[in-house]
């Protein structure tokens, strides 16, 4: 499965409070997402590659594209769901995403 890529103008951004800090979120097709990482216009391939890595881990992802750059968003539901089976890697949390994303490019 491939990540969804949408125009930034088609999503609704908002801020929310999680773990003592304000995070950025967005709504797309009645689903809520948290911002995982933003990329410049020249880093399109890197943004898509990192989104694909998250999809391979079973995390629902949306990539938004704008005139400024790209953003990778992860489903808020995936951050709170407990997997049915025990797996080697636990489900990612919002605080663990930047470090996990860095590992994808290594």
TrEMBL record:
Residues 82-106 are annotated as: Disordered. Residues 82-98 have a biased composition (Polar residues). This is Uncharacterized protein.
